[in-house]
Amino acid sequence: MSERNNSGLAGVVVGQSAIASVESSGNGLSYRGYDILELAEQANFEEIAYLLIHGRLPTEVELRDYQSDLMRHRNLPEALKTVLEQLPPETQPMDVLRTGCSALGCLEPESDQRTVTSIADRLLASFASMLLYWHHFHVNGQRIETMSDETSVAGHFLSLLKQETPDELTRRAMDVSLILYAEHELNASTFAARVVASTLSDTYSAMTAAIGALRGPLHGGANEAAMDMIARYATVEDAERGMHEALSNKQLIMGFGHRVYKQGDPRSPIIKAWSNKLAVATNKTRLFEVSERIEQVMMREKGLFPNLDFYSASTYHSCGIPTAFFTPLFVIARCTGWAAHIIEQRENNKLIRPLAEYTGPTPRSYIPIERRH
Amino acid sequence: MSERNNSGLAGVVVGQSAIASVESSGNGLSYRGYDILELAEQANFEEIAYLLIHGRLPTEVELRDYQSDLMRHRNLPEALKTVLEQLPPETQPMDVLRTGCSALGCLEPESDQRTVTSIADRLLASFASMLLYWHHFHVNGQRIETMSDETSVAGHFLSLLKQETPDELTRRAMDVSLILYAEHELNASTFAARVVASTLSDTYSAMTAAIGALRGPLHGGANEAAMDMIARYATVEDAERGMHEALSNKQLIMGFGHRVYKQGDPRSPIIKAWSNKLAVATNKTRLFEVSERIEQVMMREKGLFPNLDFYSASTYHSCGIPTAFFTPLFVIARCTGWAAHIIEQRENNKLIRPLAEYTGPTPRSYIPIERRH
């Protein structure tokens, strides 16, 4: 696309949405009017999932029912387990989720009885099951039980991953992270989901597209890239030196700046505080200190602030999450926002079909193949 | 989205593209400068696939090599066959292709050695294999051989479907149809592919998203909907009566009008001529006559012209294609255009991330759950 048009639709308003406000009120991000700071302090992730998908906070009874529903939907059909077993050990975990989501759409297709909200619940409940069933099958040769007694999505993920009951601090750190990642207006994966939904295709198609978009290093892949960078430095001095070298080599540093936020990402201080809390609790402070130094260098040298992805990296690492599962966790959080946007798109749908300015060859005659050289 | 903004980006230029010109020259559609009329008369589909993906028409040697490459890539890995066998007989064929595409991305992931062009070749060559392996496994309990001696994509599809050598007229009708469906600028599926590609995600993710978008009845699903309508009428008089009734009930009639073309779809007369030719050759003219009457009613009553989807329905039916495979054929054609757009997006990439106007609740305080009713 041209300089004139190669804007990636940056700053272009393509429609309305009542789900998240970004940079237009309060601390810079709210979900359905509730400030992200308050939500991250006081709510749990299932409340947020309910808020996004159903449009309002649940009552105590509704939340209990919702959590029970999600717990019931953690099982995997045998056919899906067989599909997952076919995906090689070296597969990118995001490709496992993309394929699992698409395959579930064949086994449990959308219908009048199985609507977008029940599919959203099903996927939210079973993404961890898919990923970790596949993981343990290949790593330990074990067909794990995907049900668990954990009442939260965060606890379910951790207990399946570690095959033991997680501690409360780790569980809550993951819970807060899922809240922070749940929704973010028309980011690329959500926009991809809406483009697909706008053809009146099914929920699984829209979700599968969104997973594929989130997989990219310019989107969900950023927290994994940030982790790889942070892990490279043994000390804060190493980090200082390494960052200067990387910047002078014009390397792209992931986890900094944001297309929408110009003054700072309101989610970053929240996850940074959690990263620090976990570092202190586990008495392993190197990653946090290295991260802080990188943050200082980036501000000093480039005037760039960390976004949510940056301190999510050290937070996840402290929680014992393998780096390759960072973006899949993003899927588990964001599928709630995707569902909300699919519902909103359908409520007042119009096919999303833009135009391109044609810059190719002017009209020319077809040359029969025997006269081509 | 609002009335003001709920435009589905209609008429909005979001970037440049050198692949297809729509309504800006000649007869209304050209691929890389070559008029669609000339291409449909003189070229074969593999030439068009090469033209779209490589940017120029192949020489005789290049075309022969390209066709041999495609023939070699018709096999399916055993793991993919096992995946396909898990998808129930009642699965929508588009969901089979979406899942097959995603699963192949796990088995043969993109890499420095396996690039977007080789993945495009692989998918173009094997989509028919995936679909028809799954089809025969469930319908006939048969694990078919997916290789064939047919040199064309059209011939391969027909020979796998029918398990016999297709006749030349049917083969060429399918070939022309694939040419007509190969590319169409920033339609919803292509735009979905570009949104995904803009995160620098992999080719399979972009293709999988595009399949999911094409699946929708407002996009690729239209030819199947047109067929269902046409098949309903036993005579032209039935069609006349039924159409008046449908229009007075304000039913949406698929296969007419177009977001971009205002004067007529240049592809429609081409496929209409083929529909007629097949009707005459097979001595089964009812579907064509009913279609023509529907066309007349729609022009007389609504001033709407048929688009490519409308006469594709009767054409495919005459070729012996089950209705549920019409949109999968669209995938096989359009994956060439998708590949061209993924390549173009990467050449000058910027993350596609628009904004929404926030219309949700104004800032409000979080209410602790025990105080909600």
What does this structure look like?
2 copies of one chain form a homodimer. Chain A is mainly α and 373 residues long. Chain A has a domain at 30-166 and 183-208 and 333-347: Citrate Synthase, domain 1 (Orthogonal Bundle), CATH 1.10.580.10. The first copy, chain A, is 57% helix and 5% strand. Chain A contains 16 helices and 5 strands. A 3-stranded antiparallel sheet of chain A has the order 2-3-4. In chain A, a hairpin with a 6-residue loop joins β2 and β3. In chain A, α6 (116-139) packs antiparallel against α16 (326-347), α8 (168-181) packs antiparallel against α15 and α11 (222-231) crosses α15 (308-318). Chain A is globular. The mean pLDDT of chain A is 94. Chains A and B meet through β1, β2, β4, α1 and α4 of A and β1, β2, β4, α1 and α4 of B. β1 of chain A pairs parallel with β5 (355-358) of chain B.
Topology:
2 copies of one chain form a homodimer.
Chain A: E1 13-17, E2 20-22, E3 29-31, E4 34-35, H1 36-42, H2 45-54, H3 60-72, H4 78-86, H5 93-107, H6 116-139, H7 153-162, H8 168-181, H9 188-197, H10 203-214, H11 222-231, H12 236-248, H13 268-282, H14 286-302, H15 308-318, H16 326-347, E5 355-358
Antiparallel strand pairs in A: 2-3, 3-4
Helix pairs in contact in A: 1-8, 2-16, 3-6, 4-5, 4-6, 5-6, 5-10, 6-7, 6-16, 7-8, 8-13, 8-15, 8-16, 9-10, 9-16, 10-16, 11-15, 12-14, 13-15
Strand segment count of chain A? 5
Termini of chain A, distance in Å?
30 Å
Main sheet: strand order of chain A: 2-3-4
Topology of chain A as a string of helices (H) and strands (E): EEEEHHHHHHHHHHHHHHHHE
Shape of chain A: globular
Low confidence ranges of chain A:
none
Quickly give the structural class of chain A: mainly alpha
User: How many helix segments of chain A?
Assistant: 16
Q: Helix coverage percent of residues of chain A?
A: 55-70%
- Main sheet: strands, sense, barrel of chain A: 3 strands, antiparallel
The CATH superfamily name of the domain at 30-166 and 183-208 and 333-347 in chain A is: Citrate Synthase, domain 1
The percentage of residues in β strands of chain A lies in: under 5%
CATH architecture of the domain at 30-166 and 183-208 and 333-347 in chain A: Orthogonal Bundle
Largest interface: A-B, 114 and 114 residues
Task: Name the average pLDDT of chain A.
Answer: 94
**Global Rg of chain A:** 22 Å
